Amino acid sequence: MEPLVADLKQKIEDTLCPFGFEVHPFQVAWYNALLPPAFHLPLPGPTLAFLVLSTPAMFDRALKPFLQSHHLQPLTDPVDQCVAYHLGRVRESFPELQIEVIADYEVHPNRRPKILAQTAAHVAGAAYYYQRQDVESDPWGTQHIAGVCIHPRFGGWFAIRGVVLLRGIEVPNLPPTKPIDCVPTRADRITLLERFNFHWRDWTYRDAVTPQERYSEEQKAYFSTPPAQRLALLGLLQPSEEPSSPSQELHFTTHLPKKPQNPRRGWLSPSVSPPISPGP
Predict the structure, then answer these.
(1) Structure pTM?
(2) Starting at the edge strand that comes first in sequence, how are the strands of the sheet with 21-27 ordered?
(3) Relative to the CA of 205, which of 61, 97, 171, 183 has its CA 20 to 30 Å away?
(4) Tens digits of residue pLDDT in 173-217
(5) Closest to 260 in 3D by CA, of 141, 144, 109
């Protein structure tokens, strides 16, 4: 890795990694090469970027402390607000640089996603993006089959949070990092994609590889809860509001099935319709 990239990566990791995030560098050109022009990042190809993802540790290291801080005003989506806060700290760490941060959920006025997160994760070597095209003679006929990223250490127990673009910093000699193909057999890829597309609520697709760490039961409970009920689950309702039952006041948080995975969370082929899956 080039010294400049290694230095910047280390500084970003110093800001994010203690809070349960991972950072992976890539060139804008690698990302744009896989997508039609409408989805390109409008920057020179050699521009340096970093993919940011959260690991299971983010729940305890970032989200819980964030919820206990003064940063959560006004309250909207606790996880997105927490991630935005930490990504904002990256920008603040480099006042001398032109840094643009794009969160995984951001869209243009026409609703086109600003970043296809799974594509970015794949080209950064962070997680392998398994798609229907990766299964020879697939068995699904005319069914739509959405793809999914699998992390070599965490399986599906992670979330892609966004990218950090460093305008004006070009690294034409940065060597690409291929993602680890951790689900190499046809049979296992079929199982993964079928679990992801048809049984995502049972969490089993996330164990496509044996993970070093999974989401805690608290995290799973939070993400399994309908969005409208999550603030009650966290004990974060306003004083005038009451949870539907005392058992919901658990005072914790994290991330899960929002239902169909939003297209903004990324496809390698944007012509494919949005994937159906749980959230982070």
Answers:
(1) 0.84
(2) 21-27, 47-54, 159-170, 98-103
(3) 61
(4) 999 999 999 999 999 999 999 999 999 999 999 999 999 999 999
(5) 144
